[in-house]
Amino acid sequence: xxxxxxxLLLTFIFxxxxxxxxxDDKINSVNIPGLGGETWEKGPIDFWIDSAFTKPYNIxxxxxxxxxxxxxxxxxxxxxxxxxxxxxxxxxxxxxxPYIAEAGETFFKTYCQKQFVLVGSPQFNSNNTITLxxxxxxxxxxxxxxxxxxxxxxxxxxxxxxxxxxxxxHILHQTIMYPVExxxxxxGYTGSWNDYTLDEALARGxxxxxxxxxxxxxxxxxxxxxxxxxxxxxxxxxxxxxxxxQVKFQQKxxxxxxxxxxxxxxxxxxxxxxxxxxINHL
Length: 282
Fold this sequence. Notes:
Elements: H1 2-20, H2 44-57, E1 60-62, H3 81-103, H4 105-111, E2 115-118, E3 123-124, E4 130-131, E5 133-136, E6 140-143, H5 154-175, H6 198-203, H7 215-239, H8 243-264, H9 268-280
Parallel strand pairs: 1-2, 2-6
Antiparallel strand pairs: 3-4, 5-6
Helix pairs in contact: 2-3, 3-4, 3-9, 5-7, 7-8, 7-9
Keywords: Hydrolase, Lipoprotein, Signal
GO molecular function, one term: hydrolase activity
Organism: Chitinophaga ginsengisoli
């Protein structure tokens, strides 16, 4: 008897729901950004991006907040619109232009990242580190903490450019691998790199703490540091390390210079000078 009452109740609920609906009823349209369907009116920033990046190099720059482009478990904020052109213009002058001048447009168009995603805030991690940039598949790069960008803050600018050159060096070595002997110069690679000081990293021949995380990261950190800090800045870092570690840095530098020349026909020291000249004239 109890089951019959339940069945009758469910029947009345179902019939009631049918009677409550009609063809004329309208479902409220809710726009959920990032799921498609939204449209944007192009403004001055979009036209500048088209002319500076998209048309000449087929590079997409996303600055409007699209959550699916980012890690979902992080709290992030959009980049301020007034930061977009200064940031991307800096990248154009200090990354794209030096490589194009040294290696040619065809090289750059072939290997450059095809998408930049700009984020206003830093990405904080559970291991007490901050992510300033990420790369996916050698074609997409996400840059964080851009709402604090200022051309007058050269250390901040260099940190951002370090991320760009770091990620581009990954593309290069993933295309043509650097000599395997590079991996044998330093020992002590560890996933807990952030638990050690910079002095401890330098003592083992690692140019940064993060360089200690893996051989590939060691390689690209060396490339990025040498380019962004310049000859004088890089040599000052090396000079602060113990004598035996300085020998390791010299060995790594020689391999990098040879790799760029033999694999890409790029004079690394000329590239280094071009990057420094561009940074100094920002």
